[in-house]
Structures are given as structure tokens and as C-alpha cells.
Amino acid sequence: MMKRIIGGVVATLGIALAASALADEKWFPSKWGPDDEIGAANYLSPDKVLAASKLVRTGKTYALGVTVNRLTPAFPPRRCDIYIVQPNQVGSATGLGPTSTTYNDDILNCWIGIGSQIDGLGHIGVGDTYYNGNKWADIAPITGLKKFGIHNVPPIVTRGVVLDIAGYRGVAMLTEGEAINQAEIEGAAAKQGIEIREGDVVLLHTGWMSILDSDPQRFGKAEPGLGMGGAKYLVSKGVVAVGADTWGVEAVPFEKGEGIFGVHQELLARNGTYILENMNTMELVADKAWEFLFVLGQPRYEGAVQAMINPVAIR
Amino acid sequence: MMKRIIGGVVATLGIALAASALADEKWFPSKWGPDDEIGAANYLSPDKVLAASKLVRTGKTYALGVTVNRLTPAFPPRRCDIYIVQPNQVGSATGLGPTSTTYNDDILNCWIGIGSQIDGLGHIGVGDTYYNGNKWADIAPITGLKKFGIHNVPPIVTRGVVLDIAGYRGVAMLTEGEAINQAEIEGAAAKQGIEIREGDVVLLHTGWMSILDSDPQRFGKAEPGLGMGGAKYLVSKGVVAVGADTWGVEAVPFEKGEGIFGVHQELLARNGTYILENMNTMELVADKAWEFLFVLGQPRYEGAVQAMINPVAIR
Amino acid sequence: MMKRIIGGVVATLGIALAASALADEKWFPSKWGPDDEIGAANYLSPDKVLAASKLVRTGKTYALGVTVNRLTPAFPPRRCDIYIVQPNQVGSATGLGPTSTTYNDDILNCWIGIGSQIDGLGHIGVGDTYYNGNKWADIAPITGLKKFGIHNVPPIVTRGVVLDIAGYRGVAMLTEGEAINQAEIEGAAAKQGIEIREGDVVLLHTGWMSILDSDPQRFGKAEPGLGMGGAKYLVSKGVVAVGADTWGVEAVPFEKGEGIFGVHQELLARNGTYILENMNTMELVADKAWEFLFVLGQPRYEGAVQAMINPVAIR
Amino acid sequence: MMKRIIGGVVATLGIALAASALADEKWFPSKWGPDDEIGAANYLSPDKVLAASKLVRTGKTYALGVTVNRLTPAFPPRRCDIYIVQPNQVGSATGLGPTSTTYNDDILNCWIGIGSQIDGLGHIGVGDTYYNGNKWADIAPITGLKKFGIHNVPPIVTRGVVLDIAGYRGVAMLTEGEAINQAEIEGAAAKQGIEIREGDVVLLHTGWMSILDSDPQRFGKAEPGLGMGGAKYLVSKGVVAVGADTWGVEAVPFEKGEGIFGVHQELLARNGTYILENMNTMELVADKAWEFLFVLGQPRYEGAVQAMINPVAIR
Fold first, then answer.
1. Taking the model in full, what pTM does it have?
2. ipTM
């Protein structure tokens, strides 16, 4: 028996070494203190809102959220069903009361992580450790996150910028696994004549969404996206959130050596930077609307990890 | 047998007469033509967006949506459950891949019509007739509305105004069934020194939300709210949407003679005016933030009747 | 205006005539009185149970229910998802308490009408009229049937017989739309040397289930099955329920002139005879187990229309 | 750093020791071999079916399952909603086709573990180890158990016995935490003049269900039930399943020193013995129907942990 125990300890030690290497990084407490729960949303400020409001020059608005239905490709086994119901109104249109009121209602049986969504800081961890050093087991009961519930994220109202990475590369669409790193980000920004500032929401246009309807299987299986270097660079700039016109924002297949959804870990867990998936950047790019007032008020399910969203760009 | 048929016809005739009286109102085609599907959202325009953006003077933002959970009172039998899940990660925190990626995800089993929500134009009908004369049976399959799906509503970005009806009445909170009509709307606006303009979103502050947490049963059973006269007045002003800090916006118990949810019928079906329920107006009123930039990008479930929302007021 | 009303009346009259023709059939009150809610389950009796128990001669049991999963073909838009969850047990296997209790649980987001199922008497109506003359609007609130809820059906324990219609026809499998009527039923019974008695559950073996896994699309799109003549014949025999190895028991495409799911109407609404869908009759037929003790205890969701079942044949 | 690692190892060792103590029990491989997946269902046999069928003497049947609805008390956060829907039939009762077919359908948003249920062998583990030594992580993906899915349990048709523990104790109802152990089981069996045999399903009547409707809160918070000694005794007898008229079968609060749901661990994980919860034993006891033919065909959701059931006792 002893042998079995010792073997177990040794095996466990291997794991402990790996885990401790990760722990050595000292990525918590967060720069906003050990009690912080909103991460990069701390960069938001009335001054930045005011400044961003000056970017509105034409009054054109852009819905950055895509339409979601049963067929929207999503990370398995995510699914989304909606049912339109007419409670207690069978067989007649005479409806309720003297004015014949009839009505439709709707029920969602739906994973939140489908279509356009914001990933909250409780979505991804490094082992059992989540943003700001919180332990997984402490925050994730089945009835709702105890910390980082999406309902606690304040409205994200700030300057938004879109980087036309596809345009910078001179292609209509990047391909699977193509990573966007510092050079591409700086290059695209320079070409567009914009700079990235603290408090910004940065959206990457890869062109990938152009195949969402025409080839949903390819769309959902892999994607171009942010690389680890790009993620660290954007974090260093103090952005509030990073979005893209892809389902997962980061390059898939993942960059060599960067783990599984390592960019998610870098952004969410280590730095409290929000991720915005499936952002429709097509019209912004077509209009060369490189900077704009970005407004996101996400639905506030208590303790939700994510939210289905439709941010608005205003210009 | 013949007698029974004739009886049936006569009974049917009674219904036909009632229905025809309603039909006589000639409330369709809509003022935006027989093919219109977005109603008062047609009032939105870049000019109004641009003008509203000038209302941003301090950069303060307001989340108008409330937090929703299992206990949020709602029209029966509406319910909302969220489940936080860790797909395929049982029994260990070593996670996926060399960087130990772990994650939480979430599933909603939820009626949309709970908490802060926008009622789309397909929510309420007059018998079998919906906005712009559309027939109920033509638009409401169980898998999603064929017309008036909430995904088709453009971002609502415009001037918002809040009317402090409670303040105008000199009370902290209006009471059940208390109807807000033209006199109160004009009176409150005058007292606050603001006017209601075409394209506005108008929010009524009744104080009712102050009991949402402390007495959810009372909150959900009845409410003060818009009366028929007030609804017609706001429609005449050309507002895009009417909201309130109550679950149903209109006075419940209903005004005498106005039917069951007659104000809903007036706003949604007859005039294509959107309804915004459970809007948290408390901080706006505390700040006397009477007018502001209103921004709503609702999640875009295809064919949904309603959407859970969290509009943002910016000032 | 008057013209429109009159037109409406005439149109309504047309409907009324059609409806009255149906009404003329005098199919209610039921033979078990105007208050009956269980229909052919009234044929069940202790005597028949006792007699059927004598059919047990080898002690072999047969699960007549099929396995259901996400891919099981079903009438659109029916879907079925199951989620295995580990509530509040993230990141560790140390579990609860000193004995390290861990557990899995499961959540169903599922239409009941998938896979092996019993159709209750509230499933299908003739216009607004359901079994025993009940009005649709009186029995079908969204939260559960007021009458004919599946929870009220007593255990169906009685003699079961399987008719090998495919064998009688000399084929491995009947084809789409092929109707089984009195001649086939009598012929198969005679060939097998069995008779159909009052209180029996009769299962039709068409062979159709042999393609359930190999060609689910074909399986779900159409089917051989009971014709109207066969349905009336079985009703005349006083059977409690009719089942088959198909998703809908009746022939699809429907027999000419028999309407849409007319056999369902005949069995459920007009005669209170239960329908058992997707019954796995393969092994019974392979064993020539023509008669047996049939036992069905269906899950008792209050007010459910149907139930997912797995009846047991014992021989 | 090294110190932290070593500390981790030591801490881990503590856990390993605890786990190894449990592991030392050598409760696997199972008595039916290392590949067995059905546990005590191996006791079932045609001979026992045949013998049990002889217990049918009056032909009376008993539905052992209770009715389940929204209010049925259950282990938090389990909930169960059913929705009755009329797909695509709004506003009229003319229905489909020339015979005016109308229909109701039903959708379940429901935890399976509510009301009368069978716990499969994948429900409860000892740390990361489940029945027959299977590792938790290997068997429990979110889309369905890989082993011990309830769909694989054969029909449980065998001799059933009910032990009137309340009667043996001379009370109408046992109280919270009252444990039923070998003495009570033997005593009740002796008083009733029956013996417990290999292959039996044993149901314990505590009277607890008499308060299910009148005091659901008390019913669901605690319960009398099987103690560890009783569990071991029944296992030694070779029973297939143990049920009771309580929500969890075992005594709650748990017996001192027996852990959290330790009886569940003993029955399911260590011995492959099924658990039947919320069995309605009232009428059996009233009839002194001490032994009977027990028949359970559970719905076969692929990979489900549990199933909602309604076993039938026949006598």
C-alpha cells in the first residue's frame, strides 16, 4: 500500500511543480488591489466617456452584435433554442378582456456563450486560480458565480477602435491559426493613423465573419486571431476589452507553446481584460470608422459568466 | 342540428361585431407604410443621434437594467434559471493543456420577459391582428417570430428623458393602479423644464422600483403606470419608446374601460411604439439627469419577441 | 362596414358547417360517461392483470423503449438535450464530508415527444374539441393540462400482443405510407394464431425501426403504419393502446381522405385509445413472443401531455 | 519556492493518505468483474421473474411513482418546469388539414432528480472513484455519462417486498434522522412473515410521505431512512435495489460518523445497488401487500445519471 501512496505523491509532485511554475508568475493581487472584481473596467472614467462622446460626428450607429439562432456555430456542446409561446390562449383569437388582448412570449433554452458575447472575468482560470487570485471552488456554485458575475460589470462606454488587420495584410480574410501580434497591431494602427489608448475597446477585423453564414462549419472549427504577444501588448496599453469578428478572438489552432486558450488566460485571468466575441466589424471597416463611441450595456443575469450582447458603435 | 349551426353563427356574429368595431379603427397600415416592421424606430436618425451626443456633459453613465435572478418577480408563469457549468472538467483543477486551462460556462433556462426588457412589436395584438395589420397566425411559429423579431430592431440611440412623476406628485412612490396621463406628463416636464420631442425615449419614474427588493410580491402584483391618455399623448409626440421603473409600464389594475393591457395594445400594436420595462431610473432622478444620451443595443436572438436589456444613459 | 361583417359571417359559416359536420359524429360523451378522463384505460381490470400474469412462462423481459439522445429523429421542432452536472464540486475530487462524497446530476431540456412515448388523451383534438367533448381552451394552460394529464393514467398492466405485419407481408420492412388495416391485422393475427381481446395492448411490427440508426432522416420523415380502417377495427376490439415500431404509429404520408394525423384523432380524441410510439418490437418478433404481460408505469409529470416511456414485456 | 512545493506535497500527502485509506477498502473490481456496468442488476434472472410472476394473485396494481410538479420538494437547486405548447396553431381552432387537427405538446426544463427516481450507479462516488473503480473524469462529460448511463439498466422485474418500518415501530411516521438498521429490517420482516431474498427490490415504508403535500418544507429538509448497518445488511442479502417513501432513502441528518450521503456511497459506488427514491408505499402497506411482482422500465435518456420513474407493483 505504501508504495501506491508514494507513487501518488510523486505523480502529484509533478503536477505541483507544473502548477507552481505557473504560480510563480505572481499575477495577483491585481493592479487594482486584492479585492478588485471588475479588472480593466477600472480604466473607465467619466473623462474618457466625455472624450469619446466627441467622436460622434455623423450620428451613424453600428450594431456590433450578430443575430443568433439554432444554427449559429458555437463551441460544443453549446446550443440555443428559443420557443415562442402563447400562454393560455389556445384555439381562439378573442384574447383577454373587452379589447381582445392576445400575446406572444418567449422562453430561452440557451447557452449564453453563443453569438456575440462578452466573457466575464470568471470564464477562464489558470488551474484552480481565477482573476485576482480567487479560487475556482470559492466562486463557481451552479446557481451563479459568487464573484465576477456579469451583472457587476459597469456599462462599458469608452473610445472604441477597430483595427483592419485584413486590410493591413492586404487580404479579404485571414486564415485559420494566423496570429495577430504586436507588429500587426502597430502596423495596422499606423496605417489607419490611429493610436491605442488606455481605456479603449479594441476590435480586430480579420474578415473571418464573412464566412459565418456561407460556411458555418469552417467558421466554427478554427479562426485567425490574437496571439500571445498581441495580447500582452494590448494589456500593456491598458485596454478595457479586446474583441474580434471571430467566435473566440484568439488564434485557433493555438500558437505553439501557448497552451489551450492561453490568450484567454492572459486577458481574463491574469489581467482582467474583457473579451468580446463575434463582433460584427464589417460595416465599421467599410466606412473606415476607425474610432468611435463604444457603448455596451450587457443584460444582467446575476452570477452569469458571460452575456449575449449587441454593443453599439456610434460615430 | 341546423339549430345548433345557426346558434353557432349567431354567437360568431357577436364576436365578429366586436372584432369589426376594433377593426374599424383603421390603425393600419402604419404611418411608415404597409411593409414596415420596426415602427417608431423609424423616428431614429443620425441627426438625432448627433444632437443627443451633445447631451453628454459629465461623462457619467447609468445602467438602466436591473439584476435578474430566480427571485425576480415576473408575470406568471415566467421563470428564470441559470446554471454555471464546468463542461468535462470533473474532479481536478489541472485543466486543459500545458497551461492548465479551466473554465466556467452558463446555460439559461429562462423566459425572456423577466427583469429589464424591451417589448418588441410582436408581443401584443388586438385579437388576431398585430402591428401594421399583420395576422397573428402568419407571424408566430414556435421557433421564432417571422416578423418583428427583436433582432431586427436597430440600436436605439437617441435623446432620453426621465420624468419624475413621483416628484411631481410630491410622493416617494405612486401606488397601485395610479394612472399617469397627459396632465402628469406635461406637468412633470414643465416642472423639470424639459420638453418631449420626436424620437425621444421617455422614462417614467414612479418610485415603484424602491420596493422591488423589499417587497417583491407587492411589486409584481400591481403597479402605477401609464394610462391610455398618457399613451396616446406620448404617441402623438412621436416617441420611440416608453419605459418605466415598473414591471409592466402601464397602470395595473388597468384603468376602467381600457381593457387588459390596453396601453400595451395602444403602444405596440396600434402605433409601433416600444415598451421598456423595469428601467432603473433611481439614480437619474437623484442626479436630476432629466435628459441624456440613451443607448440600447439589445441581444439579437432571431425571432425573439422580447429581449433582456440593460440600456445605458450617458450624461 | 356591414358588408365586411357579413362576409365574415359567411366565411365563418363555412367553417361552422365544416366543424358541425365533424360535430355531427356524436363521438361524445364517451362510452365511460361524460366525466371520464382516462378512456380505454377503463378496460383494464384485475381479472385481466391476473390472466396476463399467466402469460409469463420463461421469465424473459423485453425493454420496449429505445434509447434517446440528441440525434433521435423527432417531429420538428422537438429537441432533447441532457446536461450532466456536478453542482458545487469544481476543481477537486475531495468531495463533501469525511468520506469524500462526489456526485453527478442531470438536467433535461427536452421535448417529451421524442423516442418511445405514450400519447395522452390531451395530445390531439378535432378542432377545439378533445376527448369526451372537452374544449381545448378549458384544458390546456401552459403550466400543465387540466384534464388528461399523463400523471392520471393508471399503470397499464395487461395482455400485450405483437402483430408481425412485416412477416405477414413477407418483407423485412414495410415502406412509407403503407397502411395497415383490418385485413392485415386479422391476417397477421390468424397467421400467428392469436386473437385480439378487449383490454389488450396491440403492438404493430413493421420493421421500420431497423433503419432508426442507419438512416434516421428517412426514419423520421415518413413511415408505414396504422390506417383508418385498422384504427376503427382495433377500437372495436376494445384495445387499451396501440403501438408500433415507428415514430407516429399511423401511416405517413396519410391515407387519402383521412386528414392530417386522422388516425391520432380517431384513437385519442374520438375513442380514448392510447398511442405508444417508437416501441422496439424487434426482439419480441425474433422470439415469436406473440403474447405477453405488458407493464407500463409512465413517469408522472403533472399535466404532461405525453410521457417518455420504456414499457416492459414479460414472457 | 521549494518550500512552497514541499508544503504542497505534504498537504497533498495528507489527502493521499485519506484517499488511500478509502482506497484500501478494496471495493473494486466488483463481484461481477472489472468490466461490469450494471451492478446488482446482475442478480436479475428469468427464474426470479418467473417466480415473482406467481406473486400476482389478485391482479391489483400499484403506481409507486408520485406526481411531480413545480412545487415538489427536491434537493437544491433542482427544479422542474413543464410547458404545454401548441406549436404553430395560434389564434384559431381550425387546425391542420380537412379534419381540423389541433394538438398540444410539452417541453421539460427539469432536473431529473425530482420526485420518484432511480439513482444510477454513476450518481455518487467516493472521491474520484465510482462504481467498479471507474474514474470520475473518465465517465462524466456534460453531454452524458460514458458509463452507467441509465439507458443501460435492464428492466427491473423481480420480487418486491415492502417493509413497514413505521408499523414495526408502532408509529404512523418515523422522524428526521431516524436510522433503519439491521434490527429494524429483520424485525419488520419477521413481524410481516416475509424474508428478503437475493434479487429482491426492498422498499422501506417510513410514513414520511404522508407529509409530502401537507408540509413539503419539512418533507424535503430531512428524513428518516436507511442507516449504514441496514445498507450493508441489504447488500449482504443481494438485493437489486433499495427504495423508500422518502426523497433520499437514507437517514438525514446522517448517522454520526457515516459521512455525507455515506449510505448512497455504500449502495451505489461500493456495491452497485440501485436506489429508488420517493416510492409511494402507502397503499401497499394499507393492503398488507408485503410481497409482489415489481416492474420498472425506466425512460432511457442516453447517458442520464438518473431517471424519473413510476414502478408498478402487481399483486
1. 0.93
2. 0.93
